[in-house]
Design a protein that fits this description.
transmembrane helix; 8 helices; RNase_H-like_dom_plant; RNaseH-like_sf; alpha+beta; 2 strands; 183 residues
Length: 183
């Protein structure tokens, strides 16, 4: 049984091309490139890269296809092995960030206490980088800030249980971090 839709037998064709979750992602991708994607087979999907794109577009199209297939697989594994239901929005955000070419990037962080009061914030222009580098640098800078302010000593007691989750929030969803990153 398909881990994502729980309605059809799981096969590679179903999982990557026919499952409603996968179809939503392919429909989103079709709307972005303004072309209908032939979902008859993975080979047909990959043939999309041979439509006379310039070299940069072709690289992005191939990267997007690979990222879509990879993220569908990761979502399937999250459901199957971790009992975590994937969000279509966050999956698409991961595809966008993993597919995008490097450009001007920045990172920002906000420190809040348990009541949500602002304890401090930072913003840092990175220069030319991709989204993954910006996210990781943001985590590193946040840890360094916490350490410098002696907040880290409080964290050491809890570090055994610490999990870091990198998630993409669209600019409109995090106004403060967006403004910090654009300074």
């Amino acid at each position: 049984m398909c881990s994502l839709c729980r309605k059809h037998p799981e096969s590679t064709v179903h999982l990557f091309l026919q499952c409603p979750f996968a179809l939503s992602i392919w429909n989103w991708f079709s709307s972005v490139i303004r072309l209908q994607v032939n979902l008859s087979s993975i080979k047909d999907v990959l043939s999309l890269a041979n439509r006379g794109w310039n070299s940069q577009c072709q690289v992005v199209i191939i990267a997007a296809i690979i990222s879509i297939v990879n993220n569908i697989w990761l979502c399937r594994n999250s459901v199957r092995f971790e009992n975590i239901n994937p969000s279509l929005t966050s999956t698409i955000a991961l595809i966008i960030s993993s597919t995008s070419l490097a450009g001007l990037a920045a990172c920002a962080g906000i420190f809040r206490n348990s009541q949500g009061a602002n304890l401090g914030c930072f913003g840092f222009n990175i220069g030319i980088a991709n989204a993954l580098f910006a996210e990781i640098l943001g985590i590193i800078l946040a840890i360094e800030c916490a350490f410098d302010r002696k907040w880290w000593s409080n964290c050491i007691l809890k570090i055994r249980d610490m999990q870091i989750i990198v998630s993409h929030v669209f600019r409109e969803g995090n106004f403060v971090a967006d403004k910090l990153a654009s300074l």
